[in-house]
Specification:
By secondary structure, the chain is an alpha+beta fold. The chain has one domain. Helices cover 34% and strands 24% of the residues. It has two helices and six strands. The strands form three sheets. Strands 1-2 form a two-stranded antiparallel sheet. Strands 3-4 form a two-stranded antiparallel ribbon. The radius of gyration is 26 Å and the shape is rod-shaped. The termini are far apart.
């Protein structure tokens, strides 16, 4: 009797999956590989501090120069001028 119940549940699960259903113990949520996370209040992006002034900016908006993040062209130019002296 229990064997028939197990077979019945397996058949139901296979039919459910066949029609596009997701089973939580078989199909876990994919892990986030990008640098943004979804939350109830919006997306959270990774941030970096500007190497010159320290203002935090998103990595998408940052100007990357010699492995450092800058918030604007002005900060980048200040850093380049400091390096020339």
């Amino acid at each position: 009797m229990i064997f028939k119940l197990i077979i019945f549940l397996v058949v139901i699960a296979l039919i459910y999956r066949w029609f596009g259903g997701k089973l939580p113990f078989i199909d876990p949520k994919p892990s986030s590989t990008n640098k943004e996370e979804d939350h109830d209040f919006g997306k959270i992006e990774s941030t970096s501090a500007c190497a010159t002034c320290g203002v935090y900016i998103t990595e998408a908006d940052a100007i990357i120069y010699q492995r450092k993040a800058y918030c604007s062209q002005e900060c980048l130019q200040k850093a380049q001028q400091k390096g020339d002296q």
